[in-house]
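Weekly modeling sync, notes
Attendees: S.R. (lead), two postdocs, one rotation student

Agenda item 3: backlog of single-chain predictions. S.R. asked that every request posted to the team notebook include the full sequence so nobody has to chase files. The rotation student volunteered to paste the first one in as an example of the format we agreed on. Action items at the bottom.

Example entry:
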Amino acid sequence: MSKVNHLAVAGILVLASCSHKENEQTAENNHVINVQTEQPASYTGLIQSGYSGTVEAQQTTALSFATMGTITEIFADEGQAVRKGQLLAKVNASNAQNAYQAALASRQQAEDAYRRMKPMKDNGTLPEIKWVEVETGLAQAKAAVAIAQKGISDCSLYAPASGVLGKKYVQAGMNVIPATTVLELLNIQSVYIKIPVSENEISLFKKGETAQITINAINKTVTGTVKEIGVLADVLSHTYPVKIEVQNSTGDIKPGMICSVQTTAKDNRSGLLVSSKALQKDVKGNQFMYVEKNGQAEKIPVQTIALIDNKVLIQGEVPQNANIIISGQQKLNNGTPVKIIQ
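Predicted structure, as returned to the notebook:
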């Protein structure tokens, strides 16, 4: 009898244990998870990006003498505005002057021979071959004078266009040879703002589009136009150069100034912008997120399109005004009761 009683008691304990476990499971399923949510933002397709740029002259011309010699004078300083045709520098022209005087003497001799031989040519007493020699000699003498005049002119350096002198590479007394850069002439009536653009963003730039440029050095904000889009990437940074043209009639924007550039580009992609914290992946690698619907968590498959302005552009069956769960989602299953907290 005692043995029977013990078995009965054991059975009762087993039933009680099972009942307790079932109650715990039910309580766990009914447990409400506190979550934080946010609503998705509509993607307008306008991408605003910021870059750091450097001011460059629209055109930089390296000026050099066409002849060798010793610089005697430089008539302009760095930063000075010059006009087209203005004399900028000279080299010693004594050799060129001597060559010119010699050429003049030769021309005078050839002209004298021509005058004396012309009457003989007219009356037929001068052989034709002799007359050809006289004409050839005069032509050569005139050409020599022109060359000597060019040699004198080459001893002076003139501004080929109006602009501002950038860097001065030489001083009076230095010897120069042809093609040695003496002065740098800058055209800054309009300037370029050069920015580096990554390969992921270069396709968003189009010629003719505008950008806002802020130059802190002169506390100035201007509007520029995209003028050049590079096609070769920098081998180290893997960025493409983009040049934005800015009008600079006052000349206060100087080459080398650092500026910040804000651009707005049109993107043809569509979707919603959500926080990256909402995204999860299942065991198969498929992306999904939870939204709050009628007090419960609802699992919705999504597809990531791009990362834009610290948000993720997604596509999926996500309502425009959905409460997307961004905190507490690790504890959720489809249908889990949730409570939105601040």
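Discussion: group reviewed the output briefly. Helices lie at 2-29, 94-123, 128-153.
Action items: rotation student to repeat for the remaining queue; S.R. to check formatting next week.
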